[in-house]
Amino acid sequence: MDSQVMVALALSLVGGFSTSLGALFVILNQAPNLKMLGLLQGFAAGLMLSISFLDLAHNAMNSIGFLKGNLWFFAGVIFFAVVANFIPEPTLPHSSEVKGRKKSSDEGGKDMMKKHRRQVFFSGIITAIGISLHNFPEGMAVFLGSMKGLRVGLNLALAIALHNIPEGVAVALPVYFATQSKWQAFKLATLSGFAEPLGVVIVAYLFPSSLSPEILEGLLGSVGGVMAFLTLHEMLPLAFDYAGQKQAVKAVFFGMAFMSASLYFLELSLPKEISL
To answer: Which residue ranges traverse the bilayer (predicted)?
Structure first.
């Protein structure tokens, strides 16, 4: 396995293991701070939008032409729209709903409580499977970004890692409620993130290491389309729901400013020999 694949694998592990942080939100706090999660999603959305439009799509259009760059970009949008249609992003329940479930379980008999917990546990398993399938294309995106250079791969991994924290919450919350086991909740949330490095390993064997520059730029334009769709379809609505529209919009622009600054300082700090 060459160094390029190892770098991509390491970056995808950061994104994959961030679902574990989401699980920690649940097991360390009985009522997770959903406003904070919403602000994180807004911040991550700003990172994603900046990467998608100001970096990946922009570079694709400059390198292979406006028309080809747009075609690759919208191919990525359509691809992920189809993925989202068949594997929708699981919804994160409000903490008030979980409290309501606990209350109704306490008021019913033990049999009803067991039945209800089995149903909730099953929903957690389905959520974990859905998130695993959903994370697979994100691993592909990190791999292709790493082929372009360290900067692109690092930025994609950071944005995806922030996006994956609420996904860990979405898995851990029902599992913890159903089993009352912190370990089970943490374990399933962590396993759901493993699809990301798995995506890197599989794509590494599908794509040759010496892709032509035009194909690589086109594929990165498609990654920009994937990231743009993911941001507008999933991350922004969640940020608005949990942080409120005004706070979420501020977080988005803060994320964009942060990404612009990180691009600038990475350009200055990385050695000239390292491809950006």
So the answer is: 6-27, 39-57, 69-87, 120-136, 156-176, 188-207, 219-236, 248-266
C-alpha to C-alpha distance for 42 and 256, rounded to whole angstroms: 10
H helical segments located in 29-181? 34-49, 58-64, 66-86, 95-107, 110-148, 150-179
Rounded CA-CA distance 199/212 in Å is 21
Spatial contact of 197 and 1, defined as CB atoms under 8 Å apart = no
What's the pLDDT at 245? 92
> CB–CB of 201/13 below 8 Å?
no
Kindly give, in sequence order, each residue whose CB lies less than 8 Å from that of residue 173, ignoring residues fewer than 6 positions away: 26, 32, 92, 93, 98, 124, 185
Q: Answer whether 51's CB lies under 8 Å from 227's CB.
A: yes
Close Cβ partners of 206 (under 8 Å, ≥ 6 residues apart): none
Q: Give every residue of the chain whose pLDDT is below 50, as ranges.
A: 95-96, 98-99, 101-102, 104-108, 270-276
**Using one digit for the tens of pLDDT, what is the confidence trace for 84-142?**
787 665 555 554 454 454 454 444 456 655 666 776 676 677 667 767 766 777 788 88
Give the HSE-up count for residue 246: Cα atoms under 13 Å, Cβ half-sphere. Answer: 0
Q: pTM to 2 decimals?
A: 0.68
